[in-house]
Design goal:
The chain is of the alpha/beta class. It has one domain: 3-Layer(aba) Sandwich (Rossmann fold). Helices cover 31% and strands 22% of the residues. It has nine helices and ten strands. Strands 6-7-8-3-9-10 form a six-stranded mixed β-sheet, sandwiched between helices. The chain has a four-stranded antiparallel β-sheet with strand order 2-1-4-5, covered by helices on one side. α6 packs parallel to α7. The protein is globular. It starts with 28 loop residues before the first strand and ends in an 8-residue tail after the last helix.
Length: 278
Amino acid sequence: MSTSISDPDHPELGDSDPGALVDPSQTVLSGRNLIKTYGRVIGLDGVNIDLFPGEVLAVIGDNGAGKSTLIKALTGALTPDSGQVFLDGREVHFRSPQDARAAGIETVYQTLAVAPALDISANMFLGRERRRPGVLGSVFRMLDKKGMKADAGRSMANLGIATVQNMDQAVETLSGGQRQAVAVARAATFASKFVVLDEPTAALGVKETRQVLNLISQIKERGLPVILISHNMPNVFEVADRIHIARLGGSAGVITPQSHTPTEAVAIMTGATTLQRG
């Protein structure tokens, strides 16, 4: 297998390995030699990763491969023992997910951080509620529910989400795919750097999965890069530009849908074969 490709979107890769390290100033996000241990258990073993502008980077790996630890280290949910994280070429030190959110990074976890009893617009602005202008907001602390509802509707429409129309509808009345759409729309609305999606199609049906994949394409078209963590190889190979393969706390390499097949990706992921360079 060969990873030699020509990538017109990222000329800095030229005809070299799609996982070759580049200057972090050319990336949206870069991780360098990230290490995280839990006693004798190795979570991350010197991992390098790059996310380029406007791309969908998939992260795949078997259970225990280090995918979750890597993502948490990049988004402030945990602090690596050593290594560097660069955002737009500048080294950053996220101490919490709130730090990452403040920097423009939004993460949608598999468990979905939505409040079922609240309506769609309230969920979209959860933790970012806006007050009404003037004395009503400053003195009486009244929320701008009308404005948030209108903005939530525009955000959903901009992402092509047609199955959810009523922003007053409680999230608990939505289907699994619609709830996922609300969470993804919220992330896309407030992210300015990139969006992380953790197993966004897990436990979804075929129709709802298609909706989420369309959302990923919509986010990419808007210019926001996406990190997609998924076990679903057909989904990964449909939407990803590059695929980072995690294995045993390290990285088994980076491939593309053009350079490898899903079967080959699984073989690399499980250790049945190794990635040949050059």
